[in-house]
Each structure stands twice: as structure tokens, then as C-alpha cells.
Amino acid sequence: MASSFLHHLGLIPLIAMLCVTVAQTNYQKISLGRSLVASDDSDSWPSPSGEFAFGFHRLENQNLYLLSIWFDNIPNKTLVWYANGDNPVPKGSKVELTSDGLLNLKDPGGNIVWHPNPIPSGVAYADMLDTGNFVLVGTNTSNVWQSFDNPVDTLLPTQTLGVDISVSARTAAENFTRSRFELRLIRDGNLVLNTIAWPKENKYEAYYWSNTVDSPDGITGNKLIFNESGYLYIIKTEGDVVNVNSASTIPSFPIRDYYHRVTVDYDGVLRQYAHPKTPRNGEWTAIWFAPNDICSSMNGERGGGTCGFNSYCSPGSTDGSPNCQCLPGFRFSDPGNKFNGCKRDAIQNCDLGSLRPEDIYDMQELNVNWPNSTNYDSLESLSDVECSKSCLYDCQCVVAVNVDGACRKKKFPVSNGKMLQPNDGKAFVKVPISNTSSSDSYTRIDWPKRSPATFSMVAKLLLGSSVFLNLLLVVAILLIVLRSYDGRTKLHRPPSLLDNNLCTFTYQDLKVSTDCFKEEIGRGSFGTVYKGVLPLSGTLTIVAVKKLHNMSQDGEREFKTEASVIAKIHHKNLVRLIGFCNEGPHKLLVYEFMSNGSLARFIFGESRPEWGKRIQLAFEIARGLTYLHEECSTQIIHCDIKPQNILVDDSFTARISDFGLAKLLISDQSRTLTEIRGTKGYVAPEWFRNTRITAKVDVYSYGVMLLEIICSRKSIDMERQNEAEQILVDWVSDCYKARKLDKLVEDDEEARSDLKLLEKLVMVALWCIQEDPTVRPSMKMVLHMLEGVCIVSAPPSPFPDGSISWNRQLSWHPVRTSSSLSGPKFILDKLQDCL
Ligand SMILES: *[C@@H]1O[C@H](CO)[C@@H](O)[C@H](O)[C@H]1NC(C)=O
Ligand SMILES: *[C@@H]1O[C@H](CO)[C@@H](O)[C@H](O)[C@H]1NC(C)=O
Ligand SMILES: *[C@@H]1O[C@H](CO)[C@@H](O)[C@H](O)[C@H]1NC(C)=O
Ligand SMILES: *[C@@H]1O[C@H](CO)[C@@H](O)[C@H](O)[C@H]1NC(C)=O
Ligand SMILES: *[C@@H]1O[C@H](CO)[C@@H](O)[C@H](O)[C@H]1NC(C)=O
Ligand SMILES: *[C@@H]1O[C@H](CO)[C@@H](O)[C@H](O)[C@H]1NC(C)=O
């Protein structure tokens, strides 16, 4: 009762205010000779009411300080002015009002970092006023310098802004470096917001203006006033008053109860904020802002726009803040500043050799336009797909926008990007495929696959034949499915779903699904793989069930943890883990089934794929490996890259299998580990040396495999008549030295007519198989070399002249692999590095 009565009278704020002002401050005028030193418990110079203070503010998470003025009566010590935003000073720096009246900020070495400019003379003392204005007062009691005349990013009530004085935003919430957004009253009388360009402060087109021009030719007498009631207006030379903020909202936030400030925020928007004086731990609320939509207000031809080059702007939240995003395939130039544009590592390359653009690039679709970015070409009446394809096949093109009946190809860099309404047109962005991992949220355009004969035959059958034939076909397909179903798929119980769609199965389930492990489809170092059928999300799905050899019963939880880690890794060039079984000694992994078997079958078998297809597979493997090495949340070293571990899916895409398993088996010390280590012919020398295993072991194995793919033969082939050809890496390196690469592909007409690409691939492979791991490139670098993003320089000989190649040593001394150096303990230690 009583409290609501008090409330009625409006007494609560009043009482609270009394409490505030009773709080003692150690205010006094600052006399000559006084100083402050920057440290965590340094003093400050408060205003009489204690509402503002002048002193050192420590930057978040840094040992650096700003000489500044802040709201001192609220927990959030919001800065309203700072002297050295571009140049924070270390602990021990000092601000001093010298005995001869100079105000200096000095670093610990005594160098002057900042002083008022121009240097005022005749200073008697300094004073921190209750308005938030820090003043140097002359002997005749007038202010000879004041912070209000030298604003940074904030204006306070009672502050005025004259012509040509700029208020500049900081770079980020906690980065006080001056950014490119600024507010100014320009000479013709307009108050404008514009961006500027370093280093000469060229001004770009304004994105907000007050329409208060009064002096097109001379210098205006206009003034921007932030009066003590919180109103922001311009008094024109003739005395007219033009409101800048929305005057109607101000009475709801009376100065008696609220602190006010007007700030050019780091997102380029000018905002007026209010903060309740009580309770003190309230928040700053934006009560007015301009412009309304900064994205659409930036219309200049020059400069990068709100978000900078190669990005786009979309309206963010209700306080006018824009949302900046990079073009797909790009990332922020400066991760701490989303308004500074985006860049990419990969540069576009026009020399694709025998590759088609769609082997290297995806076109991604966005509802974005860059209306003020110059077009280098404009094509009338193309469909979206035609426009996208036209950009894909035009090596100069980065982005094409199909809008207003024309396909506009944009020059690089694109500037001032803006989100469009869904039906206003579409942009197509060319992105190197290595950048389109499955986590991308953009729509990817799938090109119709180049028709393999079978596909087009089925299509023709379906499209061109009678209903009867179609029926026959459907029945035939059903029969095939049912045959493999064969009554063995009744599950014990439905699989349970863990997070990220990882299923757990019982041993019984998997036994049934594989018909008692009947059909073996592969056998590797980690276990044996069987074909199975499981009802997954409502459809019968063929799966590959890998039964791990002789796992101990311990490590149940680790097994589950590792399996979940593997299951989280999704990439189009990796085989996906669907689920697992973890019942005592029975440890099984369930994978997607890859109908085309392993790469080994193709490159060493009868039906060698054509040259272009082989190269494409090599690219895909490189992308998968790059993903494992560099783009997963934790790096995964495969440790056993070889053609038997590369599978080929229905659409003839290469998919790496068995990744993450080395780690899984480490905890199981009961096993003999010798067979886990990489396979002879693909193993890097450091496996047998006393050095750490790094991702470079995979690079080595990839290099050997790349040569196998190029030459369609095994890396070690002792059957060959010509001894010089038995060890592939030796032979390749000899041919490379002798400049006779065509010998490597003697029976491959296509490869022989593409010697330039052949040479490039061989050079990349020779880089990969360098004996010194530090000389080998990273997988990402390998990918860049393959894609032509960077030039491939001549590789050094993988083995110094006279010495024997590593692979030949291995082939001569097979015993060496089981020497003491490679005993279980040693290998176990090495495997720790495969994490
Ligand atoms: C302090 O205020 C600033 C400006 O409104 C805001 O960005 C920041 O999040 C606030 N900090 C805290 C701790 O409330
Ligand atoms: C006080 O001195 C300053 C310079 O020292 C001068 O600019 C100003 O006009 C003087 N003010 C008065 C009221 O004399
Ligand atoms: C602050 O921003 C500037 C300009 O973008 C940048 O050079 C500087 O590194 C940033 N400082 C910090 C501490 O992030
Ligand atoms: C501030 O400006 C508003 C609007 O122009 C006016 O109503 C108010 O009286 C002014 N306050 C002061 C203290 O001058
Ligand atoms: C920039 O694009 C907008 C929107 O199409 C247009 O209104 C404006 O005139 C353009 N500005 C320039 C300088 O071409
Ligand atoms: C694009 O790929 C490059 C090189 O692989 C990588 O550094 C960059 O982070 C990727 N960018 C995005 C947005 O995924």
C-alpha cells in the first residue's frame, strides 16, 4: 500500500536520487602539478556529483589504457570521450597537469603520446564538470580548452557541435581506433553522416543528412545543439530551429531520471541512448536513431558501402543495426570488425587445363544485389540457370546478378551489397569447391551430371516408353530390393538415435541385418566389412558394417565418444558414419554403403577410368583430406591413406573411409598394433624415425597415391621386367629428371595429349613425397596447387642424389617394419599423434 502510494506521488525516483547524491565523492578542482598513473587501481578525477570521472580506463582483456571520461555512477562505465583511442598506452603511463599549465599524456618512457591541440596557454587549473565536460580553465576564469569542443564518438546534453568538427565512430565495442563512419556539420549547413577513406579523409557520399542547407556558397552559421533537456536540433543562422531527433519521445525519458548520450556507433548508425539513473544497473536503451535503414541509405558509387567490399548488408535488428555477411567463399578481412569488408585466399585462375569449371567451382545463389557496383557485362533475357552458367564459364566473373531482365556480371571487388526481396532478382556467386562444405547454409545449384550412358538410358526408358514398360521397370526394381531385403531386416528393436543423428544398434540387430555376417565386402587393418540392410528413417538402406577386430571390453565410453566425433564429420568426400554397436567385445561401426567399391579396384583393375575422371577423383580425395586436416573442429590425421581406403559412390565421387579410427584404437592397448600403422609403399619415413607424426604423413601417402592414379599402377610392382620401373616413386622421379614424363602414361592416349597437366600433377606428387616432412606442403597447399590457385614450383629431388629412396629401402628390407623401432610400444606412441 505504502509503496504504491509513494509511487503515485513520483517519490521513489526522488528518494533514490537523494541517496545517490549523498554518496561522497572526493571531488576537487585539479590544481597544477597533479597527475594520475595508469594501473588497475589508479585514481580518477571525479565531477562534483560523482556522475562523471576523468582518468585511465583499462581495455578489456588487454594491459592497455585509454585516457578517458566515463559515466562513473553506473556499473557500466560507458566512455564518453577518450584521448588516445588509436594509441592505447601501457600500465605506468601518466597524465599530468604540469606546473606550467600543460596537460600531457606520457608513456612509461616519458614520451608524450597526447596533448590538447593546439596547446592551450595560461592554464590555472583543470576541472571535471557535472555535464561530462573536462575543462582547462585560464587565469581569467574562462575555459581555454574543453573536451566538449573535441568530441570523439559521443555527444552529451549541453554539448554543441560547430562546423567541420567531426564525431567519429570507434572500430568495435572494445576497439577505440577511429573508424570510417563520421558525423559532421558541413559548410553548407547540412548535418551529415558519411564514410571516409584513409589516409587523406576523402569523404564519400552521405548516407544521412538533415536537409538544413542554408549557405550553399559560404560558411554556415548553423549549430547542432544537444540541449540540457535531451533535445537534439539545429539552430540555423537565421535562428530557425530544426529538430534532429524525434522530439516526441524525449519527454518519456526526462533528464531528471535518465542519463542521455548521442553516439555514432561502430555500425555507422547515429543513436540517442537513455539509461535510468535508478536503478543504477539498468541498461542503455536506444530511444532514437538515424538513418532508418543504413543498408538502403548507402547509395554512393564509391567506397565499399556499409559492410565494405565483397560483403552484403541486411537490416539487422529494431535499433537500425545492419547485419554484415561475407560472400560465400570469403571471410572477414578483419575478424574483429565486420564493417571492414571481406577477402578470400583463393584467387581466380583462368588456366584450368583439361578441367571444366564445374570441377573447380560451385555457383551459389543469394538474394543480394550490388546496384552501385560497375557491371563489366550485361546480357539480356537469360534465365537464372543461364545467367549462373554464363558466369561459371566466364573466368573473369565472380558474381552475376539476374535482375530487371538482365544478367549483370560484376567487377571485382563488389561494393555496397544489399539484401533483396525474394522476387527482386538473384545473385550467383562463384565459389571454389573447397569452400562449399556441407555446413554451408547457402543454396547450392546442382548441375545435371554429364550423362553417363546408363543414366541417360534409364532416363530415356522412363521418359520415352509406354506405361507398360514403366510398370515392368518398377516391378523389376521392387523385386531387386525385396531380394536383398530377404526377411533379414526385422530389427530386434528400432535403433535409438543419439545427438547428431548417430544411431546405436544392438549386436543382434547387426547380426540380423548382415545375415550373420555373410557377405564380406572388404577387409582392412581395423576390421572386416560386411554388407547389410537396415531400415533407416523409414526406408530400407544398404549399409556397410565394419566389425572391429578383437577389441577389448574396456573403453566403452571412449568408444562412444570417438564414434560421436567421427559421426559429426560430414563432407561430400568422406564416407559417413551412420551408427555403431558397443556391446562388450562387440564393437561395430555402420557406414553408408558405397556401391562402386574402392579406388584400388578402378585404378589397378581392368576398367581404368578415363584420364579426366581419374584426375577428378584425385582432386576429391585432396578436398576430403584438407577437410580432415584443417576444417574439422579437431584435426584428424588419417594415418592410413591408400587406394583401398578410398571408396567410390554411386555418382562416382571419391570418399575417404576409415578416418578417425587410428584414434579409436589407441585406447585399446591389448591389441597388437603393428598392422594399424600405414601400409607398405604409402608410409612416410617418419613412422620409423624418432620424430613426431603430423598431418604430413597423410600428405606423403597422398603423393604416392596420386602417382598411382596418374600411372594406373601400384606403387611397388616387383613383377615388372625393367627393374627401374619397379618402385613407382623412383621411376617417376627418374622420368621427371630426364624430362620423359610421357613414358609414365605410354598406353594412355588422353594423358599423353595433356602433358602440361601431367607435369603439374607429377610435380605436386614429388612435393608430397619429400623425405623431410617439413618440406612437404600441407594438404590445403596441395589442393591450391592442383586447383591452379598457386603456381607449382620445381620440386627438389625427393631423395638426395646417390641415396636410396625410402620406398626401395622398404621393398628390400620388409623385416625392417617389424624391427624393435616399430614394436608395439613405439607405434603406440606414434599413434597418439594421429589425434
Ligand atoms: C555497457 O554499455 C555498452 C553500450 O551500451 C554495451 O555495449 C555493453 O554491452 C554494456 N556492458 C555491460 C557489461 O553491460
Ligand atoms: C581569457 O584569456 C583567453 C586567452 O588567454 C582569451 O582568449 C579570452 O578571451 C580571455 N577571456 C576573458 C573573459 O578575458
Ligand atoms: C582495432 O582496429 C584497428 C583498425 O581496424 C586494428 O588495426 C587493430 O588491430 C584493432 N585492435 C585490436 C586490439 O583488435
Ligand atoms: C530544449 O529544447 C526543447 C525543444 O526545442 C525545448 O522545449 C526545451 O525547453 C529546451 N530545454 C532547455 C533547457 O532549453
Ligand atoms: C545506387 O543504386 C541505387 C539503387 O539502385 C540508386 O537509387 C542510386 O541512384 C545509385 N547511386 C549511384 C550514384 O549510381
Ligand atoms: C575457404 O577456403 C579457404 C581455403 O581452403 C579457407 O581458408 C577459408 O577459411 C574458407 N572460407 C570459408 C568461408 O569457408
UniProtKB/TrEMBL annotation:
GO terms for biological process: recognition of pollen. The keyword Calcium does not apply. It comes from the Eukaryota. It is found in: Membrane. InterPro entries: Bulb-type_lectin_dom (IPR001480), Bulb-type_lectin_dom_sf (IPR036426), G-type_lectin_kinases/EP1-like (IPR051343), Kinase-like_dom_sf (IPR011009), Prot_kinase_dom (IPR000719), Protein_kinase_ATP_BS (IPR017441), S_locus_glycoprot_dom (IPR000858), Ser/Thr_kinase_AS (IPR008271). Pfam families: B_lectin, Pkinase, S_locus_glycop. Keywords: ATP-binding, Disulfide bond, EGF-like domain, Glycoprotein, Kinase, Lectin, Membrane, Nucleotide-binding, Receptor, Serine/threonine-protein kinase, Signal, Transferase, Transmembrane, Transmembrane helix. Residues 21-149 form the Bulb-type lectin domain. Its EC number is 2.7.11.1. One of its GO terms (molecular function) is ATP binding. It catalyses: L-seryl-[protein] + ATP = O-phospho-L-seryl-[protein] + ADP + H(+); L-threonyl-[protein] + ATP = O-phospho-L-threonyl-[protein] + ADP + H(+). ATP binds at residue 547. Its main location: membrane. GO terms for cellular component: membrane. It is a single-pass type I membrane protein. Coiled coil: none annotated. The chain crosses the membrane at residues 461-482. Belongs to the protein kinase superfamily. Ser/Thr protein kinase family. This is Receptor-like serine/threonine-protein kinase. It comes from Coffea arabica. The gene is LOC113724150.
